[in-house]
Amino acid sequence: MSLLLRNARLLDVVTGEYQETDVRCADGRIAETGSGLRAPDGVLAVDLAGAHVLPGLIDAHVHVTAATADLGSLPHSSPSYVAVHSARIMSGMLTRGFTTVRDASGADYGLSDAQAEGILRGPRLLFCGRALSQTGGHGDTRGRGTRTSDDHPCCAGLGRVADGVDAVRAAARDELRKGAHHLKVMASGGVASPTDRIDSTQYSMDELRAVVEEAEAANRYVAAHAYTARAVNRALKAGIRSVEHGNLLDDESVRLFREYDAFLVPTLVTYWALKKEGPQFGLPTDSHRKVDEVLEEGLAALERAARGGVKTVYGSDLLGGMHRHQNEEFRIRTEVQSPLDVIRSATSTAAELLCMEGEIGTATPGAYADLVVLRGDPLTDIGFLADPRNVAGVIQNGAIVTAGEDTPLAA
Ligand code: ZN
Ligand code: ZN
């Protein structure tokens, strides 16, 4: 499969400069860039006439199995029913320009394999399986009146409960056995969990260190759900590489992120969406009031981290009917970061976190031929990324997978 794109305005996300160039894709990769490239026989050539082109976008915090915002209902849903929803959700992500996503719990090797084999339309899927949670932690969906939980692998769900160093080691090894690209732990309370407090820390340091040790033994890393500075800082000290949310981090956190070369993955759009549409998806009034505060704090945390030189990565964390707002995170972040820095968080910096530098998040020769074609320049108006209607086309592994009707890609 070969494709030649002519006259693209291709963004080098490292320098922030556009280059007017042709891009030739072959065997799923970018073969060469430069002006006046020759199209070998049988190559489809498309003149992009100066359209703005970026490397395919990366979202490092999604839940492709979150068919509903009521996460507690997932384990009681048919896994085949949830898988069909996942296919719909992943297809939407690809159309919005995301060619790679990192699932932050719920997705498994089945979805990842189906996407890689080309029988499921969607972004390349890096998964962690189930997130590890302590009893009563953010991954424990039981209400107070329920004693048993069914961790059977055929039940959909985002978390699995494991307590104690031996049990978390076994759970970590089990997720790695099933091909987890990274491990996920719940290191603090959350908004949606039924029995914990958002300001709680979860797991002992020994348990966190055991998970990190297991991941590192397999040349993988650990991502941790954490809100407060106390939870973030102990996660970083335990060797966690990717802090999810981090809305209440402090200056000590910024110092630790840099000391441990860790990444922050804010997920601001999910609070924005919950604020706007939470009640219609069943969010109680009390939680709805809290959402405003979490969004404000999250934006301040991002600003503090970015100013302190922390590597920040794009995340959305949307659930159920709110997935369609995935690109809005671009607009929210530009309140405190430059458009170029936000674009880097969804390309080059995300690739570094995912240990796929040079393969994704860049449009240089040798990388996967994943590109997004925009209707205008997002460096001058972030709306060209934040509104998915401005995505004119998406190329994945050198194939046109989305083409706006009025664009040369559709011809
Ligand atoms: Zn979380
Ligand atoms: Zn999440």
Describe the 3D structure.
The chain has 12 helices and 18 strands. By secondary structure, it is α/β, with parallel strands linked by helices. The protein has 2 domains: 2-56 and 360-410, Urease, subunit C, domain 1 (Roll), CATH 2.30.40.10; 57-326, Metal-dependent hydrolases (TIM Barrel). Strand 17 (391-396) and strand 18 form a beta hairpin. Helix 3 packs parallel to helix 4 (205-217), helix 5 (229-237) runs parallel beside helix 6 (251-260) and helix 7 (268-277) runs antiparallel to helix 8 (285-307). The radius of gyration is 21 Å and the shape is globular. The model has no long low-confidence stretch (mean pLDDT 94). One zinc ion binds next to loops. One zinc ion (ZN) binds at residues 190, 225, 244-245.
Small ligands present: zinc ion
Broad shape: globular
How many strand units?
A: 18
Low-confidence parts, pLDDT < 50 over ≥5 residues? none
Give the integer mean of the pLDDT values.
94
What count of structural domains?
A: 2
Distance between the termini: 17 Å
Number of helices: 12
By CATH, the superfamily of the largest domain comes out as Metal-dependent hydrolases
Largest sheet: 8 strands, mixed
